[in-house]
Amino acid sequence: MGRPRRLRRPDAELWFPQDRAGSAGRAPITDYGPARAICARCPVAAECLDYAIRADEGHGLWGGKTPAERDEIRRRRRGAA
Which of 34, 41, 37 is nearest to 17 (CA)? Predict the structure, then answer.
């Protein structure tokens, strides 16, 4: 299975806030709250998360999980294997 289809929202940068530096010298935006709310209602969030874990995605919110949360899931899965 390939990468989940792209989000159709004009504000897709919500899922990659660490990549969106603040303008005019402001700090980068790191709030995943709005994206998490969308992921919580998404019918393909589990597929998205699974892709991000298998592909070792290191940036952005995938399936409602941050990079650190996905790392923890990977550690738990390795420990259970």
Answer: 34
